[in-house]
Here is the input.
Amino acid sequence: MHITKEQYDTFFDDVEFRDAPVPSTGEIFQMPLVGRNAIQMVAFHSASRAKVLDLLPPAMVPVALGDDQTVLGVIAIEYLERNIENYSEVVVVIPVRIGDGAAAPTVEDLLSEGLGGCTLLVRHIAVTTRTAEIVGNELLGYAKFIANIDFVDMPDERICVLSEAGNEILRFAVGVGQEYGDYERSTLSVVTYKNDLAYKLTYASQTRPAINTPDRNVLILGDHPLGRSLAALQVSNTPLATIYSPDFQLISDDRNLEVFKP
Here is the structure.
């Protein structure tokens, strides 16, 4: 939903923090996990629906486009002010609906508020610090791994490069402009499938996306095994849609984590 600048500024006012131990180490971290200042870039691409269906968990249905295509997203976030050590992350997601007999999401769903109730299946998620990895995996249900994430800021584009041990996984770019839309607030859900269980986390976020950005949008997949696995899904080089926002904020609360067998 669209919000005012005043509402944007009060996003964290009612958050009550508490200490939460990491099960494996006993380390204490503050929950909820909040991002007060972050730069987000998002690109949604087409991919082979048949190939994506082959790797989806049970009872998860992806978007159905024409010509047996579906939608796959790449998200990069550079956290500049977090209540843990700052880090960056890259997430590969597939919009789905969950449940036996669930209808396939539509493009109209993805363009509506809160993605029309769709859930983003986290296929891969890379972070740059050990703290982000263990907090994400043990308190918030993810399956994060550590990699290198670099950002390059150009006058009219931002480039993200994801690599591991010097081997490039992917790089993508989105156009950057000087005009911005309204402030927006939404509630979204992501789901990670591991150990035959679904870990669904619902979180709140707000943003102010750039508008009228130049077309600098491209995805290049590298020779890393993960890059090759994405290439096997026939992911398009040019996106269907992109988002750039230097005003991204979110609240991730472990109490909103649901664990179930889909």
